[in-house]
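Hey, quick one: can you model this chain's 3D structure?
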Amino acid sequence: MELFVGDDWAEEHHDVELMDPAGRRLGRARLPEGVTGMARLHAMIAAQLGEGVEDAVVKVGIETDRGPWAQALIAAGYEVFAVNPLQAARYRERHSVSGAKSDKADAHTLADMVRTDSHQLRPVAADSPRAEAIKVVARAHKTLIWERTRHTQRLRHALREYFPAALEAFEDLAASDTLELLSKAPDPAAAVRLSISQISAALRRAGRRKIEEKAAVIQTALRAPAPARGCRGRLRHQRAIHGRGVEGTGRAGQDPAGAGGEPFWTAPGR
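Sure thing. Here's the predicted structure for all 270 residues.
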């Protein structure tokens, strides 16, 4: 798989756009300069590549061949092409009557240039001592972020099938507070027993703000009923969470769906 990245850089930020071989925009973002921005770029790329990251070719167009950012891209294993600003301007004129310049448009132009004309662009060689010095660290950094993104995508898929309330409760599945709370409450029945103090403690350790407000929102989302899956599924879900029969369906504690005591939700590995 090939992925093309346009990187319009400034002193404090980078406007980037990801494009597939057909020229379709896959994503765009404004990233801060430095390790934080590079981490977000790695994550964006990993999210698009999915399981095919090992065989992927990522080509980056950027209007510079100097600086830690460009060297980190090279050291991470991406194919980096230095685009002369005059080349970018002429290319822009081919696709726009006005030729107007903007950061987002420039990122799109650079991505499209490496997609269609990389054979005419100058690849940046990793020949500086600085690039060699950070190669191992930069590639390890990229690999760890790619792996984290893949595991997060798998977790999201599993929760969508098994524990959808968690997707409503937690914005970032890779965040430390999310993982801590999921380890304490890995299933819906355990989640409804989480107290405000437990949720608040996890948020506090993660350095969150507006802790009380966020804790209440998370608790409400975790206690929300599961999506309707027919009368039988609703009754079994209610019994799994509350441990009692539903009013008007028979004796307390009896499974009205006749499931023989099997809960609607079954924790993985149990």
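One thing worth noting: DSSP finds eleven helices and six strands in the chain.
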